[in-house]
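Repro case for the chain-ordering regression, as requested:
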Amino acid sequence: QKEVEQNSGPLSVPEGAIASLNCTYSDRGSQSFFWYRQYSGKSPELIMSIYSNGDKEDGRFTAQLNKASQYVSLLIRDSQPSDSATYLCAVPSGGSYIPTFGRGTSLIVHP
Amino acid sequence: DGGITQSPKYLFRKEGQNVTLSCEQNLNHDAMYWYRQDPGQGLRLIYYSQIVNDFQKGDIAEGYSVSREKKESFPLTVTSAQKNPTAFYLCASFRDRLNEKLFFGSGTQLSVL
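-- result from build under test --
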């Protein structure tokens, strides 16, 4: 059973702070890693994808990947109340493209 | 615009009743998926199909059935054998290639009367 682990939270940060969300995965053959954001009652939307070790930045979001440690993280700089949502880590297993999702981390950004 | 349409948005099931959730896509994607999401939980895979007339069980297929007679359509039936069907159901499609993202429908909230 391929596993993707996330702390369920909630993670509470003040407005303007950096939010750090973490994810570990069990399949060493995985090659692509995705972060989805999901507002309550809505479907997930992709915010970041990363395929190589290191950092990938897109606006206020930075994804970090360490394949040796089987660890992927998402940093959100200058957090806004509108960032309050559940963040899902998704990792396709090495043998297929079918993603396994973590349980998600609930982020609360308070004014 | 291309996308995935799920219907209905809300659905209520009576005891012993089968209900069918609709999922249609016009993205010309080969692969389609059904996920179940319980409150505070991630997405769990129910069934998936990578080609017309073929589908595979996911991690929690018991009590569910699907069909894939057309590329565009992948309906999910929640049977009376599924004793705890209350959940948010998400349909997704995918180009089934490395580094591709999932495209999601807007979801169906199923509740038991």
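Ordering looks correct now. The mean pLDDT of chain B is 93.
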